[in-house]
Specification:
The complex is a heterodimer of chains A (314) and B (509). With 314 residues, chain A is α+β, with helices and mostly antiparallel strands. Chain A has ten helices and 13 strands. The chains are: A alpha+beta (314), B alpha+beta (509).
């Protein structure tokens, strides 16, 4: 059993550490003035819509305490919706409602909550409970993604979430995160979700980790997790690259979900994407990052860049 | 480019900080650890005489130029005498006077000295002396010696040394015997040498002082010989011919005027005694820094009033806590609630002591968390809720304080300094983490923060470090340099070495 890795060994595998990610990639390639474009999900959504990138439909925005009372109308119009903070981080503060039973609303987990609880949740969002630094925030109400039955066997509650890391407009790695019973339907690896690496060239899953340990099967459904073809893979890559071009950030994490009817939808962008994608792929990011960092001119054509990314993998 | 300028500042700041520290340590003699002690000699001159009933005056030369020694403090015990000090020639003199002196009168002068590398300015170039006329018996003997010496010397220094060698020879020749005949005491011997040197127009003088030992009474002043070589005075021992100031020799006066004089009294007597003691080096050194008129004495924190000093003592430890956070977060990779929260908790621990601090922290945070979970059900707005938590934290602190007061544990009364706002924020953040990421994660981060605070406490209350920071505040520049360096640290964090350990597996599996 390996207890730890020597730095030189990690270096040899091209593993990117947090310090280096911050100093050499985020600080160098992500201009601070572009951060608000991704930190505020409302702005991201507007930009994406302008560019014709598919995103979940916006139902409404709550900006003041007063507007919270209007939420009842919205809830009556849309039985299925997601309430989330515009500037939340790490998936915090997201409330998913998928139905109404009597006077109470049903959360994705199946729990029933009252209208007051929802209003209180919105108030917490507005007061900045989930935003970075406790700044006042807005609550976004949007379309709840319809679970694609393709993932039925490899997902427990929640919706799997596909993350593509794009560097200077070139995809460098991707993974899909599958919620488990342990992760409470959330696609967060820390909380026990499964991460599967995806081959950028083919869109097949390659390798899986659950709590840092290799997995072949989903712990709740028992379904095979290796060698699954992610549907619409070309669209996903293209969307990720377009997102990067839209916000102008050099080092970007693009999160997408698969909708049953609408196909891949861009959910949010992340200017400081985590490093777990390396574990899920069991492949370090550094080699390709360095390669693109040194490149003088990056081709303008997205298709060309995707081709470069796929060729660089070998 | 950025790396270049960071390196530049890292090196410049570290060099300045360490350089000033080294200067203060080596040149000014400030010790690097608080426990060092220095030898301090207390020298006492006691003048006693019997008054005749009329006015009396006492003059006493005082040590002023003391190469190799630092005068820490001096004082006079003058009883009813009026005291003035004045410069007499090259020396400093104390003048005591009284209108009527009856029976036994005793005056004291006391000075504390410690070893120090200081040098003194012995004064400017004197006039060339007039050659004296020697008696008919001595003249040829002196002339013979001088001729001898001149042949085997090049300058004033070697001339003097050679002369002393000849005069102090174990087997003296006839000429030397003639000279020795008239010089029985040490004083006469030095005078004789000075006279001889005058004959060849070398300016010479005698300086007087005492040899410091562990404890002695009835010390007598011993003479040393000084000759001027045109640039500076050079000191020789008239008996051994050794150049330079003997070790442990405290210079008292220059010239052969009597050390003390009493007018209007009889049975006048002077006793000099010395005792050795040990003092904390820092006290000695800080006095030294003040006296040495260095640029750093005006910047020294030791010049501040004591109550301000204590504030600075604490203030200077905060950056150290911050540096610790840099190491633990950037290099090790430990997660804590809030960037500097553990530092503030650690400062609070200084007041409550570690054990009680941990007890308090755990108690307030856990009770606070319970109440916070209840408040969640009341669905309060964020800011009023935070304020409520703050108030509850204060109430909890009051309760523990009065409770422990009843139990007689005074320690916790100082809890007032516990950073309540920080505690309230910790409770809030911990409860959010609890809800969002689960109890395990919340406990992990909470305990992590507490552990970091404990380490911070141990670092920030370390006596040696506190002392170092206070005496050498320029070490702040070294810390700044370190932080700049860590700001460009792109290596792995220690926790990443285990986090990514499985990255190595694909070869083996």
């Amino acid at each position: 059993m390996i207890r730890f890795a020597w730095p030189s060994e990690l270096r040899k595998r091209g593993v990117l550490g947090i310090n280096q990610r911050n100093a050499d990639f985020i600080m160098r390639f992500n201009k601070r003035k572009f951060f608000p474009l991704v930190d505020d999900k409302l702005i991201t959504k507007e930009l994406a819509l302008k560019k014709g990138i598919a995103v979940p439909e916006l139902y409404g925005v709550l900006q003041t305490e007063h507007e919270i009372s209007e939420i009842e109308n919205l809830l009556n119009q849309h039985k299925d919706l997601v309430i989330k903070p515009a500037q939340g981080s790490g998936g915090n503060g997201i409330l998913v409602i998928d139905g109404k039973i009597g006077k109470r609303f049903r959360k994705a987990s199946g729990d029933l909550i009252t209208l007051d609880t929802i209003k209180h949740h919105c108030s917490n969002i507005l007061n900045g409970m989930y935003s970075l630094g406790g700044m006042e925030d807005k609550a976004i109400l949007e379309y709840r993604v319809q679970f694609d039955p393709f993932f039925q066997h490899i997902s427990y509650q929640g919706v799997p979430d596909i993350r593509v890391i794009v560097f200077r407009g070139i995809p460098v790695a991707a993974m899909i995160r599958l919620p488990t019973r342990e992760s409470d339907g959330k696609a967060n690896l820390h909380q026990g979700a499964i991460g599967l690496g995806i081959d950028l060239k083919t869109g097949f899953t390659t390798f899986g980790v659950h709590h840092n340990a290799a997995v072949q099967q989903h712990p709740d459904t028992g379904a095979e997790t290796n060698h699954i073809q992610i549907p619409h893979w070309e669209t996903i890559l293209r969307t990720a690259v377009e997102c990067a071009d839209t916000v102008g950030l050099g080092y970007l994490g693009v999160d997408l979900v698969m909708d049953k009817n609408l196909g891949p939808l861009m959910l949010e962008l992340n200017a400081r994407p985590g490093l777990n994608v390396q574990l899920a792929n069991r492949r370090g990011l550094l080699k390709n990052l360095m390669k693109w960092a040194e490149m003088k001119e990056i081709p303008a054509d997205p298709a060309e860049r995707i081709r470069m990314a796929q060729e660089a993998l070998d | 480019m950025t790396n270049g300028s960071v390196k530049f500042w890292v090196i410049v700041l570290a060099a300045i900080g360490l350089g000033v520290t080294a200067y203060k340590s080596y040149y000014l003699g400030l010790p690097l650890t608080p426990k060092e002690e220095a030898e301090v000699w207390t020298v006492q001159a006691r003048v006693s005489f019997k008054g005749t009933g009329g006015p009396a005056k006492v003059n006493l030369y005082l040590p002023e130029k003391t190469p190799g020694f630092l005068k820490l403090d001096e004082d006079f015990i003058s009883s009813q005498f009026g005291l003035t000090t004045e410069k007499v020639g090259e020396n400093l003199q104390a003048n005591w006077a009284i209108r009527r002196a009856r029976s036994l009168q005793v005056l004291y002068y006391r000075v504390n000295v410690a070893k120090s590398p200081i040098e003194v300015d012995w004064g400017g170039k004197p006039k060339f002396p007039e050659p004296p006329t020697f008696s008919e018996i001595e003249a040829p003997a002196i002339q013979a010696i001088l001729d001898d010496v001149r042949n085997s010397s090049a300058d004033v220094e070697s001339y003097t040394r050679e002369l002393l060698n000849q005069l102090n020879a174990e087997v003296p020749n006839e000429n030397v015997k003639v000279i020795r005949r008239n010089a029985e005491t040490a004083e006469q011997w030095v005078s004789q040498i000075i006279e001889i040197l005058k004959g060849v127009k070398i300016p010479a003088r005698d300086i007087w002082g005492i040899e410091l030992s562990d404890a002695r009474n009835d010390l007598r002043l011993q003479p040393l010989l000084q000759v001027h070589n045109g640039q500076k005075w050079i000191t020789f021992h008239p008996k051994t011919g050794n150049k330079g100031m003997p070790s442990n020799f405290l210079v008292w006066k220059i010239g052969k005027n009597p050390l003390f004089e009493v007018e209007g009294g009889n049975k006048a007597q002077l006793d000099i005694s010395v005792t050795k003691s040990y003092k904390d080096l820092i006290n000695v050194a800080s006095t030294g820094v003040d006296k040495m008129d260095s640029v750093f004495s005006s910047f020294s924190l030791m010049a501040l009033p004591v109550e301000d000093q204590n504030v600075y003592r604490l203030l200077l430890m905060v950056p150290l806590g911050a540096v610790l956070m840099v190491v633990l977060r950037t290099f090790v990779g430990i997660k804590t609630f809030g960037t500097f929260m553990p530092v503030l908790i650690a400062i609070a621990f200084r007041e409550t002591q570690l054990f009680w601090g941990i007890v308090m922290f755990t108690m307030i945070v856990s009770v606070g968390l319970l109440i916070r979970f209840y408040l969640e059900r009341l669905m309060l707005l964020l800011v009023p809720r935070l304020a409520s938590i703050l108030i509850i934290v204060v109430i909890l602190m009051l309760i523990t304080s009065s409770f422990t007061n009843m139990l007689g544990a005074e320690r916790l009364l100082s809890i007032a300094l516990f950073p309540m706002v920080i505690l309230a924020m910790t409770i809030e953040r911990m409860s959010i983490t609890w809800e969002e990421n689960g109890a395990r994660e919340a406990m992990k981060q909470g305990i992590g923060s507490l552990l970091v605070a404990c380490v911070g406490y141990l670092v920030m209350t370390n006596e040696e470090l506190m002392y170092l920071m206070f005496v050498f505040p320029e070490l702040l520049l070294v810390m700044l340099s370190f932080c700049l360096m860590m700001g460009r640290y792109t290596g792995y964090r220690l926790v990443e070495l285990t986090r990514f350990k499985d990255m190595l597996r694909n070869e083996k599996s």
